[in-house]
Amino acid sequence: MTDQKKNLNLKAFKSSWMGWGLSENDFYQRVGVLRGTADLVGEIIAANLPEALNTPAVKDAKAALGKQYALYKQQTLIPGDDQEWQPLSKKEREFRAVVCERLAMLVKVNGWRQPSDQATIREYVATHDDAVCSWLNSLYPTIDLDRRQLLIMTTAKFIRSYTPFFSDRGCAFQFSSVLDDSLVVLDEFDSTKEQLLDKVIDDALKVQFDLPTMFKQLSTGLLAEDDLPQDLRDLVKDSPKFGELQQRAKRLNQKFFSRLLL
Predict the structure, then answer these.
(1) Is 54 helix (H, G, I), strand (E, B) or coil?
(2) How far is C-alpha 249 from the chain's CA centre?
């Protein structure tokens, strides 16, 4: 992984790989290139659909994705603001779902949401060298990351998450089995600190919580012991920590609301 996209140099790497007589699909069956949502959608829009996927439903989904991508490109992104990114992510999920439906028909399974059907689709994509499999392997290595011998991505992508092909929810790399017994190579390691700091800030900006209400509710709950049933009140008050907890709640409540009034 590397800090800047330009340092990935995928084109030269693929050319060197294919220079040994291997096919492009063989390259993408072994090497997974993980992209952010915007970059992935850009690649999808630029690539032609394989004939077997070029159905009215898939074409309509791609056209809708293209319109959302054009709108995304026109908007000015604000760091930490997901308002422009979320609609694009939603359209990509919808496009992926339509592709999954078509894949289920091609592989002749009843659907694509059951793990057994997903396994059948994965096995087909991993063992066939046709236009559909080549398209999937190059754009969606997340269909089966466990089969990849090498994963290539930016540092920003690595410290965030990836979305499995058959899922709507992202999966953090550090909690994934994909990296088990793997060697992780970070280019431009000195800039990783800045990337991590940006992620911490982004995550903090996503938290939406009414802190004043939370403090007030906690304080009220701890001070309203008379409203409890007698048995429960006796049990709570017998705890030596309860009085201390009440006093801490009072101090925090007074301190917090005093700052709000300044």
Answers:
(1) coil
(2) 37
